[in-house]
């Protein structure tokens, strides 16, 4: 139970504080429950969409859903996205060690650069366009299902990146996760997203879309796993490992990928 509460403490703004001494093992084990924290955000997205659509058109509702999701986790994934892209934009000097140190230094800087701001704008815009398109073109129950699943999968991608990555720093919370997440955490979290997907599919997707809804689960899982693995390797090359900022960036980009795959599926397999 402490690990579950820790997952909510790390990933949401819920006023949860685990009492007592917290070991590094407990912190690392909490990663297994990240998809449940994502499910909580997914429920917030569904409730927000349901209530807002009673008042506003789909375009405004889409923007407000994104805003509410950003608030629900304090926006720290977006902060990580901006810091990561600012660091990637650092020009190479030709010396790998020097370049990595400079990039890590940029990620620590609280000031957002032009590339980081551009990454933020493009990310939010892409989510807005994709969600708005879904609300306009597909049944509300289908959109509700996808809004619920989007943060579930994005939190899972962070675990995959943790497992395949190493820590770029010798301190910080990110190091604890990156150095201690094991295959059992990956298996448990994968079972969690499978159970959550099956639950949603049984409620609506299977009834309406049949076997296609199973196929898209496989495609999403494989694609996001490959994306997380590739991202971990990219960060090792650029930064010498991953940081908490990189994990936040992976989560944000994976949500765009999720929505893009879902949109293609809805267009071509229904």
Structural overview:
The protein starts with a helix and ends with a helix. By secondary structure, it is an all-alpha fold. 41% of the residues are buried. Helices cover 79% and strands 0% of the residues. It has one domain (2-268).
Counting structural domains, the number is 1
SS element count, helices: 12
Quick one: biggest sheet?
A: none
Low-confidence stretches: none
> What helical percentage do the residues reach?
over 70%
Rg from alpha-carbon coordinates: 18 Å
Distance between the termini: 40 Å
User: How large is the share of residues in beta strands?
Assistant: under 5%
Find the count of extended strands (DSSP E, 2+ residues).
Answer: 0
The secondary structure category is: mainly alpha
Coarse shape: globular
Please tell me the overall pLDDT.
92
**H-E string:** HHHHHHHHHHHH
How would you briefly describe this protein structure?
This protein is mainly alpha-helical. 79% of the residues lie in helices and 0% in strands. The protein has one domain.
């Amino acid at each position: 139970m402490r690990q579950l509460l820790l997952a909510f403490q790390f990933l949401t703004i819920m006023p949860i504080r685990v009492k007592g001494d917290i070991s590094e093992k407990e912190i690392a084990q909490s990663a297994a429950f990240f998809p449940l924290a994502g499910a909580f955000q997914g429920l917030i997205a569904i409730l927000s969409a349901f209530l807002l659509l009673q008042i506003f058109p789909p375009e405004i509702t889409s923007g407000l859903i994104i805003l509410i999701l950003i608030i629900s986790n304090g926006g720290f994934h977006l902060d990580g996205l901006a810091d990561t892209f600012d660091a990637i934009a650092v020009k190479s000097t030709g010396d790998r060690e020097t370049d990595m140190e400079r990039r890590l230094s940029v990620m620590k800087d609280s000031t957002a650069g032009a590339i980081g701001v551009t990454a933020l704008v493009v990310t939010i815009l892409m989510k807005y366009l994709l969600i708005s398109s879904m609300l306009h073109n597909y049944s509300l129950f289908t959109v509700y299902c996808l809004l619920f699943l989007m943060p579930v999968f994005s939190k899972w991608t962070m675990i995959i990146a943790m497992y395949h990555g190493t820590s770029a720093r010798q301190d910080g919370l990110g190091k604890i996760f990156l150095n201690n997440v094991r295959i059992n955490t990956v298996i448990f979290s994968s079972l969690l997203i499978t159970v959550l997907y099956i639950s949603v599919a049984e409620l609506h997707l299977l009834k309406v879309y049949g076997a296609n809804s199973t196929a898209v689960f496989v495609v999403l899982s494989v694609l996001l796993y490959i994306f997380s693995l590739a991202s971990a390797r990219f960060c090792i090359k650029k930064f010498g490992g991953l940081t908490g900022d990189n994990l936040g960036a992976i989560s944000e980009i994976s949500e765009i990928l999720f929505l893009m795959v879902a949109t293609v599926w809805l267009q071509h397999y229904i």
